[in-house]
Protein: Small ribosomal subunit biogenesis GTPase RsgA
Amino acid sequence: MSWERTDAYDQYGRWSEDDVRVRANRKGSRPRTKQRPDHEDAVDGFVLTVDRGRYRCLVEEGHKKRERTVIATTARELGRKSVVVGDRVGLVGDVSGDPGSLARIVKVAERTTLLRRSADDSDRIERIIVANADQLCVVVAAAQPEPRPRLIDRYLVAAYDAGIEPIVMITKTDLASSAPIRELVASLEVPVFESALGEEPDPEFRRMLTDHVTVMVGHSGVGKSTLVNALVPKAGRATGHVNVVTGRGRHTSSSSIALRVEDASGSDGWIIDTPGVRSFGLGHVDSDSVFKAFPGIAEVVAECPRGCTHRADAPDCELDEAVADGRLDAVGASRVASLRRLLGSMDPEDTAAPEAAAD
Ligand SMILES: Nc1nc2c(ncn2[C@@H]2O[C@H](COP(=O)(O)OP(=O)(O)OP(=O)(O)O)[C@@H](O)[C@H]2O)c(=O)[nH]1
Ligand SMILES: [Zn+2]
Structure:
């Protein structure tokens, strides 16, 4: 996973000069770096969309008059470092945002989080979906398409692995009860919200988005775009239909986009809508990091034998001891059971879900 970081950046995303050769400087002016300009004049941008090598970035965010979007490409000096929606970048060149103008992304700030998926569970090559999200909203329909518990589990595992707080939004509650999904996530203490067609989004849910970057994920057809449009009326996310026979959506949204969402008081946050998927590979996830996401459990697994998977069948797993001797109470014990179930969603026999086939 080392490729996601470039050592030439420090923790603030500035160039680190350590590995840059500095030419002897006879004239006594500032030392010049041979290959890497430090781009002190770069302006900060927030990546809103990525489309075939063109990055739409928001600059002077929050500034009433000067805030604008700028189209940019990536500078060659970034090398193979990828830039994704949610990235905080430094831009040079024409940052006016005028029609036809083009800027260059020369820096990418170190990411606070990375949401990743792999093509399938045997594939350790990961794709970064979104950077810097601190919440992940799993959108799941009460019906049409039928909820797929394993996919929900997989999203939750990905969130815990990435250090992102999960939220569950149950849509289409006009069609079926939300109870089975609520039961599924009950022991994880994940905030759960509901929505139904034609209803205003729950103000509590809207408030939950304020001052956060929330990535919205879900199976194709669950009503994610409908929800995003309700939250951000000018978003104009294309909504599709669900095939009544298969219950599948048509992948109407095809790329990720960051959208500003406001609450009743006018405060705002960002949601990042991602394309609907049918499967979510977890080849890159290490089960240790999922357990370590929970205080109380992290201390216990620190005592496990080396290489312990912490799964139900793991020999001498300290979690079993801690449940037995009361170090973990009833809530802790049910959380361990839930996490083990979540990690069961990574089991290989589960990857060949019928939905993985194209329709
Ligand atoms: N009954 C009902 N239908 C809904 C609700 N939300 C969305 N739908 C319908 O479900 C269908 C799919 O909705 P979309 O918003 O396009 O779904 P999506 O999750 O964005 O789908 P992808 O673009 O494939 O990712 C549309 O026909 C919506 O009108 C709801 O709360 N209740
Ligand atoms: Zn263990």
